[in-house]
Design goal:
By secondary structure, this protein is mainly α. The protein contains four helices and no strands. 73% of the residues lie in helices and 0% in strands.
Length: 125
């Protein structure tokens, strides 16, 4: 039986993005306090925005251009999150093992988003 996606939370990419944002929140709790308004805030915002933009894209799927636009925003936020992760790793706030794991998760998220962008007819109506 084929899985039917009724709400954005049914999307595997949404689940991956949400879970990754939760992981980033947990990791960032250990960042230095002087990073609170720069790295910590930025990485939390961009990671959460990936999932939020996916939810918004799903609700706009009856308008293909809007759907693709929100997916593109989500992809951009995922790439931004990877930049903040690299800073966290470079500054030794995030060890290499955790960095590689979460960065790879974002590579998969971006690939899933790109697949949706390249195949909008599968999602829109």
């Amino acid at each position: 039986m084929k899985n039917i996606i009724l709400v954005h939370t049914d999307l595997i990419v949404f689940q991956n993005a949400f879970n990754s944002a939760v992981q980033i929140h947990q990791f960032s709790q250990n960042f230095p306090s002087e990073e609170k308004f720069s790295l910590t805030d930025q990485i939390r915002r961009s990671s959460r925005s990936v999932a939020a933009n996916l939810a918004e894209a799903f609700r706009k799927r009856r308008y293909p251009k809007s759907f693709i636009s929100k997916l593109t925003d989500s992809e951009g936020e995922a790439a931004e999150t990877q930049v903040w992760l690299k800073f966290a790793n470079t500054f030794n706030y995030l060890n290499s093992e955790d960095y590689n794991k979460i960065n790879s998760a974002y590579d998969r998220i971006i690939a899933q988003i790109v697949t949706m962008v390249l195949n909008p007819d599968k999602w829109t109506f």
